[in-house]
Structure formats: structure tokens, C-alpha cells
């Protein structure tokens, strides 16, 4: 610890981080004078200051309950004797962030980190929900180092289309697929569009938002039961109040984030990711958060954990239910109890108790049909498998629980698309030379390629195959896919094509072998041929002249490092997780 850090931890409330310019007394005098412009009394100011991150935005209906949450957090803070101070940061919504939300995640993490450092506060409640916001907030808080609680906005309610229950966004994809295949008409497409997002809140299936909510609780970053209450429920508001009160106690106890985000906590998060059939995106986010703490996620260990961690949570897209059902079934407590023998129970949580203590203190279990028993899983292994081979020397992943059993052992002819534009131009062409046995390969949608590693890895079924009733085909890319998507889809091929990974050199007609059983993804050409191609067609990495794009392209890391900027990761990597 440096002497500067030491000084910061002894100063609290409004005295924190005072700029002195030689006269600290005057700085505090000025600070108080300005905050009093908002009508505060001296007694209000003389208590622990709890920051509350407001990520409300008209562009972000996933955070549409922000005003109620902030009010409840403030109530909790005040009941516990603290002073609540809400402030804005960037907000990112999946559908309103071009070129892709992932491009902006690191920017949001920097905004979060620097505002936590700059403004005087003793602890912070971070309110986020939509896919990139929770990882960005945890990354920022991990680097800033103060006591921090994650407050999730909560899932949206499900809607009803002609009496069938629907929710974003697995059903968005399903209905769009039906429309493309000519199974529903324009009018029905518009009708279902009204029902897919039935309220404010995050996507109601086990997509990235729900996955990160569950992972936040598994990491010990939320109060117990903080992951699952839907956005519009009283339970969600109570969680907000509790989070505010808890933050005050964390400030008093000095329960900083480094005591929570330990290697054990990340191991618990990896277990939970596998058991919930969670989004593949969470691997990237976990790697990024861990990287801020000086830890590396061991992908091969994750794969091995999958042998002993079945998918237990029956939510779409791996199963049948929605987040509100998971909440009714007891939420994460029910799951954690089932996973207990596999968890690191000594991991500390924001409640000041360990995960094991929280599980033991929870109300007794009851009959429900969303969280399965160990001996009756949804899927016998973990949801995600890690692949290696000459096509992905740095690894690739597949969500095996959402893939087609028959296609998981498959050899086929490559049908190659050079980038997203090439794909858009040709995928629906009646002239596209493609059969159901082929393997679609999409290049240049990795961290630098697109840029921002968009969720374009869910390559659509070519129109002519879709019309013939084909529902799945093997697809490979260096991109990501939405946690709400399904199919036999190989993702995160590392290194990506744009930095000269082998993927860049795949040609139409090459043979590719996918064997999930053997954890293999191979391009069936010789090493000599691959080297020859690389020499003949060297890859020129993308660059930019200025601005955030330049920062991004100059410093972004590959998927295995979380697609974080290299300079934002901890200065020293001290270990791997699991240990
Ligand atoms: Fe925000 Fe799905 S779009 S959680
Ligand atoms: Mg998503």
C-alpha cells in the first residue's frame, strides 16, 4: 500500500479525496458550501457517503425502473445512517449501441472506475442490469477498490402472444426464424413484436443479463437473493433498500471489493455459469473482471469443471422457463444449495457473511420445478465446452447445452464469409453454394475485427436452407453470440482473424472437423499449407487515426483476456482461477 492509499482509507465522507492545493481546510469549506447549494445541513453531511450509480437512460428500458430503485437505495442508506449521493455514468443497451455494446463496455468501466475514484464516497451501490453494464461496473469497481455492492435492475415480465408465453429474446429469434421461413406473415410478426418485451427490465431468459445477475450473486457481489427478482416487483425494491443499508455497514467495516472478488469467488461464479446454462459472454466478462484483480480464468479448468457440474436451471434457451419462474423457485439460494458440495463456501460476500453462511441461513427448500436435483439435470454436463485445435490455438468455446447433439461430431466443407458485410450480401442468395452438411465460417468479427466482438456469431441459417426446414447447421466465428441464442455454434475463436489467427486463412471448400467429445476444432490442412497461406496473404491489423477507436484498436486484448484494454488489467497477474 502506498502512503497515498493509506491516507485515502483514513479519510471518510466528504473529506475523502480532497484536493489541497496547499490548503485542505479551504477545500473542505468550498466542498461543503457547494453541496449546501442543494439544501443539505451540516448534520446530513457528517456521515458515511454512499454513492449510487444511476444508469437510467431513455435509451435503456432494461434500466427503466431506475427511479424506484434509486429511491429505495437512498431509503436504505438513510435508515442505516448514511448519506446517499446518486450520480450518473454511461448506460449501454444492447439494441442501441453501435457498432456493438461490447465496444463500449470498457469505456463504461473506465467511467465507473474514475467516478468512484474522483468523487468522495465511502462505498457504492452500482445499479446495472443490461448485458454490458454489470460487467462494466464490476470491472470499474474492482479497479477502484472501495466497498461496492451490485444492484441488479431485474428481469422483465413475460408477455403473451395468442396465449403462448413469450419473452426476450429467445422468442424474438424463434419468431423471426418463423417469419424468415415463411411460417408466419407480416401481420403476426408485428403482433408478436408488442409482446416480446412486456415490461421494463432485462431479458427474461438465461441470456447475458440474467447470467451476469446470477454470477454477481455467486461472486458475493449482491445481497442474498439479489439476482432474480423481476424489475417491477416489490421484492426487487426491497433488495434495493437492503443494498443501500448494507453499503453503509460495508463502509463502516471497510469491506472492500478485494475481500470479495477472490479466486474462490471466481471459481464459484464459474460453477454457477455452468449450472445455469449461462451465456457464453459471461466467460469473457469474468476474464475481464478477474484480470482487474490480477487473476486469470483457466479455460481448461472451466472445461473440466463442466464434467462434474450439470445444468440444473431449467430456463430458456437451454430449458423451458423464464427468470420470474426461477425467482418463484427460490432463485439463486435454491441453486446454490444444490451446488453446495462443489462450492468454495468460505468466500466472503457483501453481506459480511460467507457464501456458506448465507446458504445455511436461507429459508428451507420447497417443491419447485425450475431448479433440478443433481441426479435429474437438464443437461448432464456443464453448458459450455472449451475447444482447441489448429483453427483455435488460443481456444474456442461452444455452448453444448444449446447445440444439436447430432452436429456436435461433424466434419464438413467450409463455406466462408470474409466479414459481416460479405455475410449480409450473400447469406440469403439463392445462388449460395451451401448444403446442410456444410460448416459456415465467418471471419473478422473478433475484438479488433468488427471491432468490439459483436454478437454476430449467431450466423443466420441461409434462406434457402431455412425455407427447406433446416433449423441448425455448424457455424464458426471469432465473434460472440447472444446468451439467448441456440445452435451448434463455435465462438470466440482465438486468436481472431483480424490479428492473423488461423481463421483468417480458411478457404471455401476446406474441410473442418468439430468434435465436442474430443474438444477439437480443426482445419484439415497441413501446417505447411497453413503457413504458406499466411505468408501469401499476410493480415494487416486494423488501426485508427484518433479517438476512442484508436484507444480500442491499440490496446484491446483477445477473448481469453476478457477483451479488456491491456492497460486496465491489473499490473501484475498473480494467479489463476480456479487455483
Ligand atoms: Fe438489455 Fe437484453 S437487451 S438485457
Ligand atoms: Mg444479450
Would you give an account of this structure?
Pfam families: ILV_EDD_C, ILVD_EDD_N. Its EC number is 4.2.1.9. The protein has about 575 residues and is of the alpha/beta class. It folds into three domains: about 50-155 and about 200-360, no CATH class; about 160-195, no CATH class; about 390-540, Glucose Oxidase, domain 1 (3-Layer(bba) Sandwich), CATH 3.50.30.80. The protein has 20 helices and 16 strands. It has helices spanning about 5-10, 25-35, 40-45, 65-80, 100-120, 135-145, 170-180, 185-195, 210-220, 235-255, 265-275, 280-290, 300-310, 325-330, 330-340, 355-360, 420-425, 465, 525-535, 545-555; strands at about 50-55, 85-90, 125-130, 150, 160, 165, 295, 385, 395-400, 410-415, 440, 475, 490, 510-515, 520-525, 575. The strands form four sheets. An eight-stranded mixed sheet has the order 8-9-13-12-11-10-14-15. A four-stranded parallel sheet has the order 2-1-3-4, sandwiched between helices. It has a two-stranded antiparallel ribbon with strand order 5-6. A hairpin with a 4-residue loop joins strand 14 (about 510-515) and strand 15. The longest helix has 20 residues, at about 235-255. FE2/S2 (inorganic) cluster binds near residues 93, 94, 202, 203 and 207.
Write the layout of secondary structure elements.
Layout: H1 3-10, H2 24-36, H3 42-45, E1 49-54, H4 66-79, E2 83-88, H5 101-118, E3 123-128, H6 133-144, E4 148-152, E5 159-161, E6 164-166, H7 170-180, H8 186-193, H9 208-219, H10 234-253, H11 263-275, H12 281-292, E7 295-297, H13 299-308, H14 323-328, H15 331-339, H16 355-361, E8 384-387, E9 396-399, E10 409-417, H17 420-426, E11 439-442, H18 463-467, E12 474-477, E13 489-491, E14 511-515, E15 520-523, H19 527-536, H20 547-555, E16 575-577
Parallel strand pairs: 1-2, 1-3, 3-4, 7-16, 10-11, 11-12, 12-13
Antiparallel strand pairs: 5-6, 8-9, 9-13, 10-14, 14-15
Bound molecules: FE2/S2 (inorganic) cluster and magnesium ion.
Amino acid at each position: 500500500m502506498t502512503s497515498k492509499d493509506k491516507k485515502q482509507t483514513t479519510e471518510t465522507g466528504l473529506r475523502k479525496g480532497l484536493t489541497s492545493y496547499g490548503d485542505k481546510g479551504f477545500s473542505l469549506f468550498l466542498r461543503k458550501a457547494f453541496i449546501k447549494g442543494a439544501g443539505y445541513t451540516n448534520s446530513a453531511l457528517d456521515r458515511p457517503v454512499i454513492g449510487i450509480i444511476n444508469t437510467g437512460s431513455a435509451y435503456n428500458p432494461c434500466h427503466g425502473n431506475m427511479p424506484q430503485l434509486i429511491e429505495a437505495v437512498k431509503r436504505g442508506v438513510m435508515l442505516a445512517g448514511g448519506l446517499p449521493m446518486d450520480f450518473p455514468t454511461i448506460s449501454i443497451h444492447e439494441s442501441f449501441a453501435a457498432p456493438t455494446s461490447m465496444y463500449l463496455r470498457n469505456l463504461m468501466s473506465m467511467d465507473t472506475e474514475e467516478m468512484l475514484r474522483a468523487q468522495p464516497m465511502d462505498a457504492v451501490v452500482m445499479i446495472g442490469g443490461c448485458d454490458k453494464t454489470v460487467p462494466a461496473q464490476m470491472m470499474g469497481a474492482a479497479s477502484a477498490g472501495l466497498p461496492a455492492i451490485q444492484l441488479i435492475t431485474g428481469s422483465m415480465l413475460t408477455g403473451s402472444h395468442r396465449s403462448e408465453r413469450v419473452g426476450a429474446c429467445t422468442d424474438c429469434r424463434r419468431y423471426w426464424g418463423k417469419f424468415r421461413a415463411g411460417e408466419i406473415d407480416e401481420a403476426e410478426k408485428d403482433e408478436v413484436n408488442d409482446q416480446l418485451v412486456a415490461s421494463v427490465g432485462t431479458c427474461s431468459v438465461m441470456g447475458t443479463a440474467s447470467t451476469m445477475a446470477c454470477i454477481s450473486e455467486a461472486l458475493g457481489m449482491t445481497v442474498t437473493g439479489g439476482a432474480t427478482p423481476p424489475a417491477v416487483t416489490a421484492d426487487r425494491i426491497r433488495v434495493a433498500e437492503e443494498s443501500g443499508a448494507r453499503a453503509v455497514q460495508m463502509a463502516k467495516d471497510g469491506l472492500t471489493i478485494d475481500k470479495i472478488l477472490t479466486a474462490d469467488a471466481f471459481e464459484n461464479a464459474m460453477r454457477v455459469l455452468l449450472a445455469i446454462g449461462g451465456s457464453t459472454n459471461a466467460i469473457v466478462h469474468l476474464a475481464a473482471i478477474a484480470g482487474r484483480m490480477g487473476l486469470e480464468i483457466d479455460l481448461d479448468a472451466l472445461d473440466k469443471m463442466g464434467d462434474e457440474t450439470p445444468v440444473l436451471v431449467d430456463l430458456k434457451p437451454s430449458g423451458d422457463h423464464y427468470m420470474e419462474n426461477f425467482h418463484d423457485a427460490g432463485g439463486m439460494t435454491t441453486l446454490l444449495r444444490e451446488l453446495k458440495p462443489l462450492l468454495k463456501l468460505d468466500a466472503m460476500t457483501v453481506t459480511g457473511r460467507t457464501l456458506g453462511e448465507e446458504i445455511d441461513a436461507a429459508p428451507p427448500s420447497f417443491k419447485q420445478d425450475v431448479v433440478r436435483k443433481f441426479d435429474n439435470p437438464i443437461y448432464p454436463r456443464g453448458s459450455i465446452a472449451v475447444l482447441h485445435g489448429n483453427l483455435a490455438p488460443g481456444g474456442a468455446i461452444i455452448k453444448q447445452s444449446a447445440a444439436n447433439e447430432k452436429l456436435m461430431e461433424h466434419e464438413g466443407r467450409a463455406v466462408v464469409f470474409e466479414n459481416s458485410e460479405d455475410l449480409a450480401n450473400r447469406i440469403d442468395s439463392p445462388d449460395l453454394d451451401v448444403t446442410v452438411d456444410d460448416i459456415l465460417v465467418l471471419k473478422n468479427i473478433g475484438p479488433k475485427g468488427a471491432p468490439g466482438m459483436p454478437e454476430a456469431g449467431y450466423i443466420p441459417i441461409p434462406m434457402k436452407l431455412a425455407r427447406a426446414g433446416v433449423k441448425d447447421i455448424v457455424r464458426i466465428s471469432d465473434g460472440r453470440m447472444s446468451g439467448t441464442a441456440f445452435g451448434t455454434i463455435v465462438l470466440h475463436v482465438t486468436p481472431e482473424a483480424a490479428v492473423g489467427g488461423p481463421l483468417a486463412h480458411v478457404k471455401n471448400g476446406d474441410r473442418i472437423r468439430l468434435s465436442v467429445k474430443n474438444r477439437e476444432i480443426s482445419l484439415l490442412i497441413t501446417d505447411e499449407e497453413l503457413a504458406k497461406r499466411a505468408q501469401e496473404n499476410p493480415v494487416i491489423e486494423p488501426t485508427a487515426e484518433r479517438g476512442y477507436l484508436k484507444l480500442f484498436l491499440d490496446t484491446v486484448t483477445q477473448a481469453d483476456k476478457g477483451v479488456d484494454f491491456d492497460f486496465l488489467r491489473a499490473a501484475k497477474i498473480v494467479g489463476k482461477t480456479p487455483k
